[in-house]
Amino acid sequence: MRVERLQLTSFRSYATLDVSFPAGPQVVVGPNATGKTNLLESLVVLGTSRSHRASQDGELIAWGDEFARLEASTGGDNRVEVVITRSGTGGGRKRVLVNGVARRPTALAQALPVILFAPEDMLLVVGSPGGRRNSLDAIVVQTVPASAATMSTYARALTQRNNLLRAIREGTAARDELRYWDALVIDDGAQIVDWRRDTLKRLAAPLADAHKEIAPGEEQLVMRYLTNAEAAATETTRDALRRRLSETSDKEMWNGATLVGPHRDDVIFVTGERELSTFASRGQQRTAILAYKLAQLDLLTVTAGQPPLLLLDDVFSELDPDRRAHLVRRIGALPQAFVTTTTTDDLDPALVAASTVWQVAPGRLTAGGTARSRA
Fold it and tell me: What is the pTM of this model?
């Protein structure tokens, strides 16, 4: 997958941007706070319909403007477009088009598959469970198109159920009103858990291979799913979730919150039957995370029939020369990849030599006169 042309209007620091990208690696160089991450963020939005940085869509619209428009051409007549219109306090209404036809946001995952490797990913091993859940769910959405709608339904049902639990605790609602929301949480929650587990199974071989390639002397790396509703020998995932909701019902009433389900599960990195977060050095953590990202790359390549667009946001400075070399080899085999950095000194000279190097300044992107922008 590659982006041949990117057009932005009133997106973050870019008032207007119209740029054509050749094949191969694209290295975007500039000081911090000049728009490097904003550029990659625009590609994330075009590939997933949401930002990895903003809590509300309205934050993506340039200050003082009422809408933002993003469009990418990916070859031939194929193009994706996202239009965000300001609404409410910080919010935004979003419209998605694929080849000029209005589509659900979930359609972008197949039209422009992307993998982002950002500095915050360096916390995946030791960070909060929420980060690992979100990362895994992003892969699920890219490989199982129907999953995004189910995840959205589950999130809404969870909010309604939690509101009802608090109302029951305060004596303004009856306990039997939970039945409807229980059914949604059980059905959709069990499906999400099954999708996550199936995705981990498909990731297992590419993860082990990538880790062995990067760290041949270390024990095999695996990712293990931890659930608070583990199924007994004769239970399905749905049965287990129903049972655990029943077992925790009194505690949920007291807390006013749903205490079991995929929103409370975790994914851990394990080597030699030990959880990596409990003993690994920073180098071992980075090795595991790099192997995980490369495994995603391999899985999505098989699923989509072509490599996804790889976005690397200032991560080379976090890696030692050996790990950088492994990443450089993978980048060189892709149709296109985007790499941001404050200085090319952090990059392998061979990568820089093979790349189109872009200089970024607030609202502008320039390389050999191929970019046109207005601050």
Answer: 0.92
